Amino acid sequence: MIVGIIGLGLIGGSMAIDLKRRGFAEKILGVEADPVNAGAAEKIGLADEIVSFDECIDRSDLVVIAVPVGTAVKMLPQVLDRFAESGAKDKIVIDTCSTKSQIVRCVHYHKMRKNYVATHPMAGTEYSGPWAAMPNLFDGRACIIANAEESGAKAVSTVERLYDTLNMRPLYMNADNHDVHTAYVSHISHVTSFALALTVLDKEKDEKHIFDLASGGFSSTVRLAKSSPDMWVPILSQNRDNVLHVIDTYLDKMKAFRDAIADYDEDKVRELIEEANRIRKIIR
Q: What is the fold of 2-173?
């Protein structure tokens, strides 16, 4: 199988590495709009060839759209249009975006809709670009397949095999439900990390040694603040309503802590912490 990957950053590049070395793909065709990234991807060997957008679609059996969701929403219809123009009934396209509702809706009535499978591999780091790509990134993680009933059975089967090659666990979910869940488990984590980083950076203006005191706890909490704005601005925009709801709930919990601390109410602080400790049963 020839796999074309549009966007050879952390997700696309890491896919390229493992799909090739584990035998799913005979050849990887890569598309990179940024010439610096294209040169790096080629030098690192993430793709066998760096080609144009159109050539990638025409030559690939399966196309992976691994670009920020704002760009992916515009790109997906273009890929399906080209499938239709060439009469490519068996070609498949997937995306890897962390919001699903808008991208699924944008091609809901497309005549080649069955050739598209909406996916979200739940893996990543705070780094971006071809240099961030690594082997084994997806091992043991979950992959969401959204609105699978709208995709062709053969396309879904092939995509399941792709993610099985990456050692991922498939979960099947409605696109709208997916966006609610990711707002809670992913998007709010990034927002709070960005906010904490801004808070500490603001304080650091006056206290130059604050980062000298930073330990592993701080580093792990603020790690996500290193994430790319090119990726996260469209995610937060597209999942606006769900993210706002989660932020409002988070602010309520922050206020509960603030009020208890302000009142020297140690019993209430303990109660809040013990309630939060219940997360141990979910995340080990």
A: Rossmann fold (3.40.50)
**How many H-runs (helices) and E-runs (strands) does the chain carry?**
12, 8
Q: How far apart (Å, rounded) are the C-alpha atoms in residues 121 and 136?
A: 13
Which residues share a beta bridge with 30? Answer: 5, 50
In this structure, are residues 151 and 117 in contact, taking their beta carbons and an 8 Å threshold? Answer: yes
Q: Which of 22-36, 146-160, 207-221, 266-280 is predicted least confidently? A: 207-221
Give the CA distances from residue 77 to residues 109, 115, 124, 128, in Å, rounded to whole numbers and listed in that order. Answer: 11, 11, 26, 25
Angle ∠(269,273,274) on CA atoms, nearest 5: 115
Q: How far apart are CA 201 and CA 203, in angstroms?
A: 5
Do 120 and 172 contact (CB within 8 A), yes or no? Answer: no
Q: What residues does each domain of the chain span?
A: 2-173, 178-281
Tens-digit pLDDT profile for residues 131-190: 999 999 999 999 999 999 999 999 999 999 999 999 999 999 999 999 999 999 899 999
| Residue 2 exposure: Cα atoms within 13 Å on the Cβ side | 15
pTM: 0.88
Q: Could you count the other beta carbons within 10 Å of the beta carbon of residue 254?
A: 11
Average pLDDT over residues 124-133: 89
CATH number of the domain at 178-281, out of 3.30.420.10, 3.40.50.150, 1.10.3660.10, 1.25.40.10? 1.10.3660.10
| AA letter at 5 | I
